[in-house]
Design goal:
Rossmann fold, 3 helices, 28% strand, 19% helix
């Protein structure tokens, strides 16, 4: 395990995912250090959603590493529910999150 892995909050290295021969992610490497805030931008088809699906356990990578909490937790070995229990999740664009609250 590298120094970068053990000091990071989230660590992805060499992540590849393909769907029916189409490479959605091709050797993606990405690190988030504690206290950092990152924004992922790109055009449609760039792999943003696929990356989030890998991190949250919805999709399994074909290859690569995905670690959380300084390399202590291999997210590729966990299911979606276990990953959610770690505090990793997604919020989808639905305007009815707080239906009973006013602005």
């Amino acid at each position: 395990m590298s120094d970068k892995t053990t000091s990071s909050l989230l660590y992805l290295d060499g992540v590849c995912v393909s769907f029916d021969g189409f490479k959605a992610l091709n050797s993606l490497s990405f690190v988030v250090e504690p206290g950092e805030l990152r924004a992922i931008i790109g055009p449609n088809g760039a792999g943003k959603t696929t990356m989030m699906d890998i991190i949250t356990g919805k999709t399994r990578p074909d290859s690569g590493e995905v670690f959380f909490d300084g390399g202590k937790i291999d997210l590729t070995k966990r299911d979606e529910a276990e990953i959610a229990q770690l505090g990793i999740g997604r919020k989808f664009q639905k305007p009815t999150v707080f239906e009973s609250h006013t602005v």
